[in-house]
Amino acid sequence: MGVLKKFEQRLEGLVNGTFAKVFKSEVQPVEIAGALQRECDNNATIWNRDRTVVPNDFIVELSAPDYERLSPYSGQLGDELAGMVRDYAKQQRYTFMGPIKVHLEKAEDLDTGLYRVRSRTLASSSNQQAPQGPPPAQPAAPPRPAAPGGYGYPPAAPPAAAPPMPAAPPPGRPGGYGYPPAAAPRPPQAGGRTRYWIEINGTRHQISRPTLVLGRSTDADVRIDDPGVSRRHCEIRTGTPSTIADLGSTNGIVVDGQHTTRATLRDGSRIVVGSTTVIYRQAEG
Questions:
Q1: Which helix (H) or strand (E) holds 87?
Q2: Exposed, middle or buried by CB within 10 Å (0-12, 13-18, 19+), for 250?
Q3: Mean pLDDT for the chain overall
Q4: Share of the chain above pLDDT 70, in %
């Protein structure tokens, strides 16, 4: 069973109690859980061939109405989300520099149903006081130059019965908390090609041309029978990177929680048109 499914089942067990009002919110906790997983994937830092470090301190920004509904339960919901991140990291073999924390904050610039996730890596006090150690004999990637103004990573003691960690991981992005850009897509290897497709309600639609139009019209490449979807709603363009653009629809598009007219897509991006969720997929080979 997947990590998100287990998380959703745990919350469902509390619907009649503490979390009864949470599920009336426009933003569902399982959506936030999925965003936290993507935040880990997008900010994973390779220390050596046996250690990949991901953020452990997260802030979820919510619209004022969603925050008012969720804030009374922020402590327990934060603990449940932190547990989900811990389970996902174990599954992906990620490690942390310190305890996992998830906080909710109100953002006045967000509309109901939209949210943002920010993250950083914070070392525990024991790691902060650890003496510096030599870098690993065979690091997976050379250290990058320091980024001015960013959160740094204090030196960490090497774990027991494991290859030593470097004195510090590659420095963070400028400004500490921020909105990290999506990982740059890698071009396909020589002799291979990238496959593209979308998934709607469990049905896969292959993208065999450079562009794919989604809409309610029978002329659209993929027809979506949803009254909230325009006749020609949006267009996906595959490439490096792939993008999506709104075609002047009535209700617009939401990509990974952001209401937008144009966005870059990555494998697993969630596109909402009307009341329909479209999952974008790509893979090499």
A1: helix 74-92
A2: exposed
A3: 75
A4: 66
